[in-house]
Here is the input.
Amino acid sequence: MEPPITAPRFVCDESALGAVLLGIKLVACPHCRQTGALIGHGFLRGYAERGSERVVRGRRVFCSNRALRGGCGRTFSVKLSTMLAGFMVRTLILWSFVKSVLAGLTRRAAWLGAASGALSLSSGYRLWQRLRGAQSALRARLCREAPPPPSAAREPLAQLFTHLGLVIGEGEADLLAAFQFRLQRGVFDR
Here is the structure.
């Protein structure tokens, strides 16, 4: 017997969100492993970096336990890989911020350049601290995919992003979104 299909945690774009919902009845709930009880349960929306408009960040899925369905009654989310969970910031902004810091800019200058004044400077510092705190978990996930390459860089984040480029591919415009999509794990997940 084949194992049940599981729902992705991250998809690449909004059309892929719709495709996930088309086949959701064939997917097993990540909590109870029940198949056939999942239904779409609305959009995840949040504010954009600039302005007050709300943007789609993902979809919620409900494992229905109503009307004699055997589900568990819990929900889970399928998110866009270009979004950082729990933040208004997109992965591309964080990626350009990190690239600028590793290229030699100060964190202040790099954040002001990457965020273009749309977000406060303290947001950049908080994201930097969060990224530094998640380094060991990121390294562990990347080491499961490929051994770390030799690196002459002294900065640990430079070594991490060299390894990330090896695993994901150097040609990617947004390595963090590609990481979330390929490994189905959030950048800041522990």
